[in-house]
Write a structure and sequence with these properties.
The structure is a homotetramer.
Chain A (H helix, E strand, L loop, with lengths): L17 H18 L6 H8 L3 H5 L5 H14 L10 H16 L3 H15 L1 H28 L9 H18 L6 H17 L3
Helix pairs in contact in A: 1-2, 1-4, 4-6, 4-7, 5-7, 5-8, 5-9, 6-7, 7-8, 8-9
The structure holds a DNA duplex.
DNA sequence: GCGTAACCGAGACGGTACGTCCCGTCTTGAT
DNA sequence: ATCAAGACGGGACGTACCGTCTCGGTTACGC
């Protein structure tokens, strides 16, 4: 699943302990569950994992990187690429899966914490783009392209804006908490976007 | 604009110094400009404002609250309530104003930092809701309601979801930085949402 | 007993409140009882006395001065000038009175705290000399002089060194707590000093 | 001379830096010289020693303990155990050495500050007893015992009271500053005490 | 089968910022 | 001019973590 983010400098010498790596990620997940990104301190991770702090820093350069790896495994495992035969069906399935993954969950809280961290740590921002945003969007974009192929929306439609509308509005409710991420919300959002894209350049 | 966040408990005793309050907010703004939310330390604010730390804590219980007050004044001053005569015109004007305010600006970076901070500080979350999210949405919702009155979109349309689509997608690009907050983006988003809401229950 | 240490600057305007003065000294005594000189803070005195801090500073320039006034009243009331007819009797009575006053009492602990404070506050040191050390020594020296008059010790004896031996050893046990201020201690000290002074220049 | 006051809990991990320890004690001594116990702040010690505050607290739990260690090294190095062949000679040599060490010196001022500190910090009081008062008295008591062995004073004489008279009177002049710690003072005190002890139960 | 290089847990290191406490002064409106 | 109240600028406190470093000890590869 999640492999060593920083590979050993050399192949000589004592190899990295897999046990330590597992223990670190488990401790990280546990701390994220207990108190979110704020409660995640390297000191406490080391303590709980029974590991020296240097052993953590040897693998993950920053707290953000560590949390990212713990988060990503949990997140990706829950994002299917639906193939229901209709654009509406695909988008609704994907949006519902996303909501299920983040709404009221540790994964959701971690996602929010990481979004914040990404703003201040440029190195994390790169990793965030390359290993989270881009892959997830690439996967989701497939649904739009299939809709175009099926003629459900015109070829001129901008798939990126479609994704921004769909998931941006969902991220918005996750981050601002002003209104619930209900199933009705998912349905109306999908309907409105599909309808808007279809009839866009009417 | 920005009033005393925590009013004095009593009317007796020496009144709070307005000079100190101004100096604190100015130092805060300056630090936010220089290094964003991360670089904002109470210690440095006190130093630059020529103020004891206790004088800050007397008014703002946390760094988040302080940054919020400094942010809010700057943000609200730039969000007009457009009245162009058409739904499309109003929404486009509002979205463009928002983008202008946050895209590549200190205000935008502070907004992001605060969104993160809000997730971890429940007291700040309340203030964030009451004094930022709700007022801004209430103002924006007026545009949708005028569109309904003019018959541009049907009465059944959910104005909150319309706002989530419009601004959620914009917040998404601000926070994930995967694609630019271009003017074309604003136009397509507005067109798609207006069209989607109009033809929704066709 | 203890009068206003700093008289009003002028006789015009509102006169100083005697109620405030009493309340301050009572609060001071109470705090000295509870936690000694360390626990004595101007803030807490003002709070308990129901008095503004400025009202205290108008009368006592420092914490040491305030504690000194609260201490002196209690101390002096308990130091008699014995007149038993013999040098030994007088000295023993005086030493016993001193021990009774300070051994295990708040007055004793305050005395120690003040001795420390005196070292760092030159203004307090002056007051300490003029209003505590000198008067008490002058009173005690009378006993020695009566002993000389009675022929119990030779005229060449240095009364100051006699007092230093008597009370210095007692202060020593009070401050170092290495051995108790027992009555036997008092007796042996008096006997040794009287005998030493008598036979000094044999 | 002065050993690590709080030994590491465990032998594992990075060992305590001797360089840091030396630097801390030097900075402490320097600050005590400049402004006495009052001017001694942990913050300034850390700054001058080029050390984090935690590094100080790891070894010395309080300011008093730190000052004590810095003081003790200086003090003990200057207290000889005289052996002149007569009680009077020994006591005079010891008292003169003590006066030389504390009269008008940094060591003397620190001694006074510590005596005050001892009254308020029970943990320091224990250390003060065990590592200062007791050892010094034990050393001094030897002189008395040799006097008894030589028949200069009777076996019934209480050596502790003899020490209290000798050094108590000297501490008294140090702390109250009412009269100087002159050499005449030392001579008369020693003569009086020796004579008093000798002729006590005449 | 032996040296050695990289690892391991532990914990100390210099440093930054925190939020609190108290100092002695100052500023109100009200006697 | 003084009162109670309480805010002011300032200094130091003791704590929490940061990311780095230094120990003695442990693998496991390549000579």
């Amino acid at each position: 699943m999640s492999e060593s983010p920083i590979p050993p400098v050399s192949l000589r010498g004592r190899p990295r302990s897999q046990r330590a790596e597992r223990a670190i990620l488990e401790a990280t997940t546990q701390l994220l569950e207990e108190g979110g990104f704020v409660a995640l301190t390297m000191e406490e991770v080391a303590l709980r994992a029974g590991v020296g702090k240097a052993t953590i820093y040897r693998r993950w350069p920053t707290k953000g990187m560590l949390a990212f790896d713990a988060f990503l495994a949990q997140f990706l495992a829950r994002q299917p690429l639906p193939d229901t035969g209709t654009l509406r069906g695909d988008l609704l399935a994907a949006l519902r899966a996303w909501i299920r993954t983040v709404n009221g969950t540790v994964t959701g809280r971690t996602l929010v914490g990481l979004i914040a961290e990404v703003q201040r740590d440029p190195a994390l921002a790169d990793v965030w783009s390359d290993r989270f945003v881009r892959p997830v969007r690439d996967q989701h974009r497939v649904m739009i392209e299939r809709g175009v192929d099926r003629g459900e929306i015109p070829p001129g439609a901008d798939p990126d804006i479609a994704l921004d509308l769909l998931f941006g509005s969902a991220y918005h409710r996750l981050l601002q908490s002003h209104l619930p991420l209900s199933d009705r919300f998912a349905q109306v959002v999908v309907d409105t976007v599909v309808s808007g894209m279809a009839g866009g350049p009417r």
